[in-house]
Write a structure and sequence with these properties.
Immunoglobulin-like; six-stranded mixed beta sheet; 47 strands; mainly beta; 4 helices
Length: 637
Amino acid sequence: MRTFGLAFILSSVLFASSCLLSGCGVGNTSEPAITVTPSQAVLSAGQSLQFNAAVIGVPVPNPQWLVNGIVGGSASIGTISGAGLYTAPTRLSSTNVQISATDPAKGSYSAPVSVSFFDPDNFQPGVVSATINPLVASYTLAVPQGASMQVQFGTTTNYGLTTWEQTPTVEGGNITILVAGMRAGSTYHMRAILQLPDGKTVEDSDHLFTTGTIPSIQLPNITTSQAAGMAPADGVELLDLFQEVSQNTQTAVVTDLQGNIIWYYPLQDEPFPIKLLPNGHMLVVESQHQRVQEIDLAGNVIWQLTLGQIQQRLSEAGINWPLIPPSSASSSSNGLTQGLNHDILELPNGHLILLVDYTLTLTNQPGSPAVLGDAIIDWDLQKGPVWTWSSFDHLSLAHAPYGTSDWTHANALLYSPDDGDLLLSMRNQNWVIKINYSNGEGDGKILWHFGEGGDFTLPPGEAPTEWNYGQHYISFPGADTVGIFPFMFFNNGNGRLDSNNVPCGTKGGAVCYSSVPVFQLNEYTHNAEVLSEHIPISPNGSTAFSSCCGSADFLSNGDLEYDVAFDQNTPGVSYIQELTQEQTPQLVWQMIIKGQLAYRAFRIPSLYPGVSWSESAIATANAKANAQPLPIKAGKS
């Protein structure tokens, strides 16, 4: 028996070695080939990795494991147990090893899979290459199991900025990081930093990358200023711009606080809106093409969802909302945009909350008017619509402050993580409503209406002037989202009522103005009060009145930032301001955009979730950046 066993092992070794050398692999047996997983690996000295053998998904019982054709391997090339656990040698060679499996009972075998070794003192440098975005580089490096990688970059070897850390799959392998945040027409140094499982830090060699240029005709007209001695909050500005003059100017851009473009998505459309996702990608709704896209930082489309696909899947589910008008995919019979619009959410479970609107002709209304109303779709990327809500089912047409042709005009969605409900801002209702969504299990009932004529009460002297009028961009500035909590938005102030209920801008009424209020809402008593309110002042010193658009939020340092998009007192100019929160607020930083409307503006910490870029780090990274004259100017005052 021992002689037979030895002969069998030797024949197996010779057979496997012959197949490895000749490539006979999978074709010399009537038995289906064995598949070994994982299909490749990168390991450090002494690391272990479990391999598995299967035939058409069924595990092979008692497979025989080989390393370089040797059953069980050896100390110099690594060993593998009968259960498929491979352990790399403690002294590494520069050559890969091959792992394979046979089934002695059936005479079947696998093609070999490769294991490469990572030596921290002698490894293959990473590769840096261009992408389809001239401001974004691709950095790829083979990383061992359990390690992490990030990239430092800057115009000198002082670097300054870093990307986020990424880890490979459990078997190790190539990590590719898209390096973004660089100015146009400049040469940057970059290197990967590896953190190995044993705590050792390893640096890749330095690489050079030169960014491309953006045609000057496509550059937004942006200027910035910063008050002397004042420090703005960390981060960069994500701008959501609409065209007003040129149809070639970029609309989805990120700038540093000096106004230099450091990322853009070459969109011949208007983002409605664009948001940075937790996975580092961007989520954008294109208003003219009526589609939702998730893109990576290079601009590669990860997936796309069109209005036509949404309409079809709704119809299949028995929901007959006419999202696409007969005459056009983007405008209704009354000339107003319908379909995808204004906002989108990605929920923690990966679902999308889509905001759409559509027109219905209601025969029970005087003159049978065409009414444009809003609807919400909970969209599972695999299943399609899984929950829907329509304003036509839950609101009364009797409440129509601006008529029914553009009845609701919703413009912002907000998810309440504490109870799983949704908030919807409807500017033409002068209301923010809370909807019983309950993470997709709710009945859609409106739980409350916030605004003039709604369910909340303001203290004497605050109503009706402090109510919301034509508001945009709702947010929770605190940790709580149910019960008693703070709530804020950009209050455009359209038709704001005075103490005598006279609308602003009319005969006998006050001058219209916009504001950024922070309310405290009490859902138990339905009382509300204004905790604070700021009234923006335009660059020319006038009180702001932005009749549309805008956003507002608090920054990481406690400052307030808001976007005044369409100030009637500064035609053709949008401006973004950062102010301190003091008794007398101080202007810290300001951005002025000419020729485009800044629908929204966000201070994001960086282009990488979990990473914050300070103003000093950005300055270090751009110490030698291209200073060629472009229609983007920066200055300090």
